[in-house]
Design a protein that fits this description.
By secondary structure, the protein is of the alpha/beta class. It has 26 helices and twelve strands. The strands form three sheets. Strands 7, 8, 9, 10, 11 and 12 form a six-stranded mixed β-sheet that branches. Strands 2-1-6 form a three-stranded mixed β-sheet. A three-stranded antiparallel β-sheet has the order 3-5-4. It is globular, with a radius of gyration of 27 Å.
């Protein structure tokens, strides 16, 4: 039998020894201990174990600030009324449930030793540790205290008597800790209403480039909270979350809410003095039991609103704020800025990044003349900035896409793309976009396991990067997992439903359904894909294959004719030789569909 009397040896003090907590810049999991317990991976997947005791065990490990916890202590806290042998077995089963729920992340989060267990707290963001950690800034602790209105480890009472006593003592300590920052947190000035018009900019300055810099500057203004302290705290927290997530993109510099201009001071003189190109502002208000969140993107050079979105959350779903709102906002803003900056005559002169902004819409047009023009602009960007990571990455992407269109040889494409992509990640190994493009290059070289690894690295650095979700979906098709490909494509739609380049993703949907054997759905989506991208050779191939499997060769003929006009050397044999499908059965089925549709064998 195991026993613990009161707090005793295994009370709050020992379980919270040495509160040193320094979460990583890119945590791989978020664990919420206030309110109903939640655990979410950096990809948004639920990684919380189902069992009540397994959750209690995970909570104990979290609240030990990354220190090793003796197995004996955990057994006495959670299995006090059973024989020692059974307690050992039960602890092992709960640890297995925790690691199974965490999947591939478990080896980075849970460290299981012969006599101790440890949670790598610094790899995670844990709300209670931020609040309890004395090194956390007072402002952060104050805002978190306002948001943490749920009870610590809500619903975990009754696990065991020793655990309940430990939990009661812990809640008392946490309540005392929360009262101080909540009472002393600085009051923030309430900004102007979000419904106000964008600030005016003097006409003679609107179309002149900002002097002395080549990078765009995007500011996130402190959001407005309407209704009280809770809405104020939510608004402030949300603006910080959006700024932190946007900072992962490398196209622009992000001015965080801490340094942003206060909204009452937002005027043309201030904007010009701070050299700001775009501003993001928002408001959080309560309507009965629902919370309304409005966010908009302002083009400051033209004093216009270019994007906005409204969200509604039930009052009992506030814990999903960071999961539902922040990723959607961030993933929508990035392509919006890229699209705007890619418009001709946007500025009177361009640096390397500006030339890339011009190249990207031409790249996605899938028209050969425009695509070649994009390549010229990327080449000019590299001449200006030979160590510009984004220019190198997009040069690699351009070369490999040129091959995918059938406009260059495999050898030339792979040589150029591999060199540029490798150089990009050597210069900036934490550039999520460069890592995703490098992974895409690996996939076309048939190094599929390496591609999957680099896509995972990319999404760990920036889980809101639609490009990485889209390209990785194609790679999951290549490795024979169309269901995972479809899940990733759905994530693209969730993140950026209004992405101006989203028509490109349709082709991957068609590939996935073709590989699943759902040829009717592949045809339905394939028709839409070729209509949206009539000059994109890759869009025709899964459509033609699906029509071949359905015995509709007559319907496939005009699509084959168009494909051969775009890619004259396309054949069944060439497809089988160069297309990076891992499974022989997938390749054989794809080639069979092409043959049945009437594609030339050689």
């Amino acid at each position: 039998m195991n026993s613990v009397v009161g707090g005793g040896q295994y009370g709050v003090t020992s379980m919270l020894a040495k509160p040193v907590y320094q979460p990583a810049a890119h945590p791989i999991a978020r664990i919420h201990l206030f309110g109903p317990m939640r655990a979410v991976s950096y990809l948004g997947d639920d990684i919380l174990p189902r069992g009540k005791k397994s959750r209690a065990l995970l909570a104990c490990l979290c609240l030990n600030f990354g220190a090793r916890v003796p197995r004996a202590r955990l057994r006495q806290l959670l299995w006090d009324k059973v024989a020692d042998a059974q307690a050992r077995q039960s602890l092992g089963a709960s640890l297995h449930e925790i690691t199974s729920a965490m999947g591939s992340l478990a080896k980075e989060i849970i460290v299981v030793g012969r006599t101790t267990v440890r949670l790598n707290a610094n790899a995670c963001w844990i709300d209670a540790l931020v609040l309890l950690n004395p090194s956390s800034p007072d402002e952060v602790r104050s805002d978190l205290a306002r948001l943490c209105d749920g009870e610590l480890l809500e619903g975990l009472n009754g696990v065991t008597d020793p655990f309940d006593r430990w939990l009661d003592q812990l809640r008392t300590r946490v309540a005392e800790t929360m009262r101080l920052p909540a009472a002393t947190g600085p009051a923030r000035a309430r900004p102007a209403d979000i419904s106000s018009s964008p600030p005016a900019v003097p006409g003679d300055t609107r179309h002149h480039p900002l002097p002395g810099r080549n990078r765009l500057r995007v500011t996130v203004l402190p959001f407005e909270g309407k209704g009280g302290n809770r809405e104020d705290a939510l608004a402030f927290s949300l603006s910080h979350q959006i700024a932190a997530a946007l900072a992962r993109f490398r196209w622009f510099d992000v001015i965080s809410p801490v340094y942003a201009v206060a909204r009452p001071l937002l005027n043309s003189a201030t904007l010009l003095g701070r050299q700001l190109d775009y501003a993001i502002d928002g408001a959080v208000s309560r309507h009965g039991r629902a919370l309304e969140i409005n966010v908009r993107l302002l083009d400051l050079a033209r004093a216009s609103q270019v994007w906005s979105e409204r969200f509604e959350l039930a009052s009992d779903a506030l814990h999903q704020l960071n999961d539902l709102v922040t990723p959607r906002v961030v993933a929508s803003i990035d392509p919006a800025i890229l699209f705007i900056e890619g418009q001709p005559k946007r500025r009177s002169h361009y640096g390397a990044t500006g030339l890339l902004f011009l190249a990207i819409p031409l790249f996605y047009s899938m028209d050969r003349a425009k695509f070649d023009r994009a390549g010229q602009l990327i080449k000019r960007a590299l001449a200006i900035g030979p160590e510009n990571t984004m220019a190198l990455a997009w040069s690699a992407f351009w070369h490999i896409t040129r091959y995918a269109h059938g406009w260059t040889s495999f050898e030339i494409s792979m040589t150029e793309s591999a060199a540029d992509a490798s150089r990009a990640i050597d210069l900036d190994p934490e550039n999520a976009e460069a890592l995703a493009i490098y992974a895409h290059t690996c996939a076309w070289k048939k190094e599929l396991d390496l591609a999957i690894d680099f896509f995972a690295r990319s999404l760990r650095l920036n889980p809101n990067l639609v490009l990485a979700w889209w390209l990785s979906a194609a790679t999951y098709c290549y490795i024979g997992d169309p269901n995972e490909a479809l899940r990733r494509l759905m994530r693209c739609r969730e993140l950026a439903p209004l992405d101006p380049h989203s028509h490109i993703y349709e082709n991957v949907y068609s590939i996935a359904y073709t590989l699943k054997g759902d040829h009717e759905q592949a045809v339905l989506i394939g028709r839409s894909a070729v209509k949206s991208n009539p000059n994109y050779p890759a869009a025709y191939k899964p459509l033609i294959t699906a029509l071949g499997h359905l015995g509709r060769a007559d319907e496939a003929k005009p699509y084959i004719d168009k494909l051969l006009s775009l890619e004259p050397n396309f054949s069944v044999e060439r497809f089988g030789r160069v297309y990076p499908l891992r499974n022989a059965s997938d390749r054989a089925s794809y080639m069979k569909g092409l043959r049945l549709a009437g594609v030339p064998e050689k």
